[in-house]
Write a structure and sequence with these properties.
single chain; alpha+beta; three-stranded antiparallel β-sheet; 4 helices; 15 strands; 28% helix; globular; binds 2-amino-4-trifluoromethylsulfanyl-butyric acid; binds cobalt (II) ion
Length: 254
């Protein structure tokens, strides 16, 4: 097995899927307020993807996942299952969207603040987004996967945060999760080397406290073992001749 190099026509489909995934995050932003339940957010995203985008929410029934999006609040690291609990002022929440359009996947997530959020929680979200951006700056033909992981680990740990190791970024295309595994820690120069027209996600999960995780009994939800806050940001990225193209870029990031 090896890392798939996408054709021009596949890349065009990935651009469309990526744009749609990004647009779901823009769409849902005004609904992320105190009092809303994550089930309501899930339903809104589901209907938008299916009815407006004529696309498929990839998480739904993926390996048995019961909902259309992942919602990970406060000390939840990732793969939180939407439920009937209401968001409250001061929460931080990751919404992770994956859509399938014309057979190809776009995968992206970001952190939202619910009302006013404590400075230490905001700082975690900002530094985690900067981890993702520093990692994306590494991406170009010849870049080793270790360069990506190293950039994230170095910046997170220099800010006294920890990097979750149990989950990683991934190749993506006609399949949700393809080779390679994109670790968010590592040594510069180590691992597989990127080539033009590969497509992968980078999706660092960063904790204020220790890196250890605990899996909840639902089999999906990962939380920090020490109950410290965790943040995650994700983009789907094409390796170009000279660098990278972020396929899930939102208008606010341009
Ligand atoms: N979107 C997640 C990722 O970034 C995967 C979610 S799998 C699910 O890879 F089944 F939980 F949806
Ligand atoms: Co992903
Ligand atoms: Co995702």
């Amino acid at each position: 097995m090896s890392i798939i190099i996408k054709t021009d026509s596949e890349i065009e489909k990935m651009r469309i899927a990526g744009k749609l995934a990004a647009e779901v995050l823009d769409y849902i932003k005004p609904y992320i307020v105190a009092g809303v339940t994550t089930n309501e957010i899930d339903q809104l995203c589901h209907d938008y993807i299916v009815d407006e985008q004529q696309a498929i929410p990839a998480p739904l029934n993926y390996k048995g996942f019961p909902k259309s999006i992942c919602t990970s609040v406060n000390y939840t690291i990732c793969h939180g299952i939407p439920n009937d609990k209401r968001l409250k002022k001061g929460d931080i929440i990751n919404v992770d969207i994956t859509v399938i359009k014309d057979g190809y996947h776009g995968d992206t997530s970001k952190m939202f603040y619910v009302g006013e959020v404590a400075p230490h929680a905001q700082r975690l979200c900002v530094i985690t987004q900067e981890c993702l951006m520093l990692a994306i700056e590494q991406v170009k033909p010849g870049c080793a996967l270790g360069d990506i992981g190293h950039a994230i680990q170095k910046y997170a740990e220099s800010n006294r945060y920890s990097v979750v190791r149990e989950f990683c970024g991934h190749g993506i295309g006609a399949k949700f999760h393809e080779e390679p595994q994109v670790l968010h820690y590592g040594k510069a120069g180590e691992g597989d080397v990127l080539k033009e027209n590969m497509i992968l996600t980078i999706e660092p999960m960063i904790n204020i406290g220790k890196r250890q995780i605990k899996m909840l009994k639902d089999g999906w939800t990962a939380v920090t073992k020490d109950r410290s806050l965790s943040a995650q940001w994700e983009h789907t990225i094409l390796v170009t001749a000279t660098g990278s193209e972020v396929l899930t870029l939102r208008d606010e990031e341009r």
